[in-house]
Amino acid sequence: MALDALRDVFGPRFSTGASDRALHGRSESHFPEMAPDAVVWPETTQEVAQILRHCSAHRLPVIGWGAGTSLEGHALAPHGGVCVDFSRMNRVLSVVPEDMLAVVQPGVTREALNGELRATGLFFPVDPGANATLGGMAATRASGTTAVRYGTMRANVLALEVVLADGRVIRTGSQAPKSSTGYDLTALFVGAEGTLGLITELTLRLQGQPEAVTAGLCAFADMTSAVAAVIATIQSGIPMARIEFIDAANVRAFNAWAGTSMDETPHLMVEFHGSPAAVREQAEAFGGIVADMGGGAFQWSERAEDRNRLWKMRHEGYYAARAAHPNAFPVTTDICVPISKLAEAVEETARDIAQAGIPGPILGHVGDGNFHALLLPDRDSPEQIAKAKALASALAERALRLGGTVSGEHGIGMGKLGYMQAEHGSAWAVMGALKAALDPLGIMNPGKMVRQE
Amino acid sequence: MALDALRDVFGPRFSTGASDRALHGRSESHFPEMAPDAVVWPETTQEVAQILRHCSAHRLPVIGWGAGTSLEGHALAPHGGVCVDFSRMNRVLSVVPEDMLAVVQPGVTREALNGELRATGLFFPVDPGANATLGGMAATRASGTTAVRYGTMRANVLALEVVLADGRVIRTGSQAPKSSTGYDLTALFVGAEGTLGLITELTLRLQGQPEAVTAGLCAFADMTSAVAAVIATIQSGIPMARIEFIDAANVRAFNAWAGTSMDETPHLMVEFHGSPAAVREQAEAFGGIVADMGGGAFQWSERAEDRNRLWKMRHEGYYAARAAHPNAFPVTTDICVPISKLAEAVEETARDIAQAGIPGPILGHVGDGNFHALLLPDRDSPEQIAKAKALASALAERALRLGGTVSGEHGIGMGKLGYMQAEHGSAWAVMGALKAALDPLGIMNPGKMVRQE
Q1: Among A345, B58, B163, B298, which one is most buried in terms of CB atoms within 10 A?
Q2: What are the contacts of B232-238 at 24+ separation with CB within 8 A?
Q3: Residue in chain A nearest B396 by alpha carbon
Q4: Mind listing the pLDDT tens digit for each residue in A185-209?
Q5: Total structural domains in chain A?
Q6: ipTM above 0.90?
Q7: Are residues A81 and A148 in the same domain?
Q8: Model pLDDT for residues B93-133, shown as the tens digit of each residue
């Protein structure tokens, strides 16, 4: 049988055991388990190439696996096949402080990288919250709290090594800061969700740790004034490092989850990076906007441990909201709109959720126009689940009507495939043509990203 | 005949006249004239689609034309065909200050756009020097003096409308600041040099005009200390808006061209953007580095007209150098290396040029690790021309050996095609597969970018 040949090569680093398969067939969201037929743990690029040559020869599906933190079921295996788990390719290969870049294997997590960088005065800025792997973050074009300042994975991946469906190994990009030599293959593989090839090495741009960092938390009487403060801040050009919105339902969930005692009203969580003088100047300008919008006094966190507590709380927003509704069937949403449309998008969404009468806390990376309504219908109520799915569809339609996108950062996976035609129109067929060119047998993460035959 | 049908449709906006063909068969560099068979001036996306359907049906080559300022012969027509001149698609369609974006037709020049933006407090930052069209800048992934701060066209194009080879019209991207929905088609068409489709509309990111701007000029005793100052500046994280190097030969050419009286030694030209306090802080930090490296006193230009004169001089560097050697056969080079390798790259290059004994002024966007040696052999000396071509090859090999790229911003066109295999290895064949998927008949700018059959 086709799988047995891989067992012969990989020995204990290959498994068809039920528990290994089940662990690699689950997601952090509501999708049913879809397990691969086998899991393999390669240690080198050449081993990945060997797996892909074998799977091409036998037309076996191949699904990459990082940390399993996707919310859209990117790594589920609806057609079975071989899951390639990168957890043994987890070395930082080099750090070049003079060029502010690092070369890493795909299984390195962002926290592990930042741990290794601590002594260099540099950090990797992209912060999706979860401790995802850098390979997974590149494959899904992740972003998060700091994208408003430092960009998404699109801006922070300089070069890649990729193994194609047929086992060919290619390198994209270079270590130079820019290039104009040919098609931007790096950008093509970033966000391709493992449907064009498997990333086996990444060259990442690093940032200097800012001389001064100040973070803070500010309460608003209502959502409208909080969102108005965000819009005014972005339009005024203050170079925010982070500007996050959390609604009253989220604050309640945080208070229950983390034992905090925040006022249960909408809040903004912000962070400033720069020289001490620049941070002071930014914080003053922002404070002026907050006062104009009727926001409350700021609680500042200048000590690193206080800031870490603040952002840990924000990062656990998803888990806190789920813990508040343990019997929920979580439907995640992730729209992103032009900043001028943010108030309209958030307010319409909040009104729809209130009318539907199901829990739906709203939080998000509002400096980018990106927010999440986490819809939490009761798992045992088909009616609530149907309402949640209708709300998610309405949100997607709203995003497109307002010139935005159905997924700012969570990607497509299993969850958003149904919106690709609406968002991209005839460009979706172009994606299909590119897929067919690089993966003619359709073995790379099948069932995702492109129209199914 | 196939061309006559286009004449019937476009009337006076179609020409097979010798002078129109010759004007669209020339470049700003040393390439011989390669004229198209006809030139057409469409006014709408639908007209572009009509041209492409017609050219597909008759297998006629199609070459896009912006302002003709390419240095690598991107728009030459080695296989003849139809040149699509975008000069009549030159409208700014909308400016949305709240979202800091503009939607433009491809024939708008960067100076025209910035003229229209003046009253909004916004500007479009990418500045290649020449007054290129925005369509051409996107197609060639242009950058220039400000990329060190604001990025290249890759970072500043948010969405596109593109007409494919078969006449299909697609839209890529959205007006949201980020998205994770599918393959990054915007990035694929930016830099594709018209070989995958023709860009008919661009959505561009704008920047706020900085509150304060200061520019300056500083002399160094030698190239080594000037380059060392650049490296230290970039590594220290000062957010330079511009940092340009010009060597002594360039200064001599400027003095002759512009009637200036600068010391004929290497110089840096810099600019700072920010709040008044931030600009002061940056300039002080930079001044400290210059002093450490033995640089001379700074001549500051705080008035807009002085700054404009400074950057006009820089932008005319190419013309000034050519004017100093009117009988030259100009061979342009454009390597880009990691900043840690910049000193090695510049010094080896200067030494080789000196040994070859032909004029070769060096200048460049050194904050990005990008510099140009403009090789100026005598047009009537086959021996000098051969030496210049050997120097250009050695430069390209040097760039690759140092982890860089053969073209930081000038692109591939006719001039750098011979280096694609060396730079991209097996990834070049992947580019060929993408080209075949989107342009199966090979009518889009044939003879460029991919391996010829």
Answers
A1: B163
A2: B232/B289, B232/B292, B232/B293, B233/B286, B233/B289, B233/B367, B234/B148, B234/B339, B234/B367, B235/A97, B235/A98, B235/A100, B235/B339, B236/B285, B236/B289, B237/A208, B238/B282, B238/B285, B238/B286
A3: A181
A4: 999 999 999 999 999 999 999 999 9
A5: 4
A6: yes
A7: no
A8: 999 999 999 999 999 999 999 999 999 999 999 999 999 99
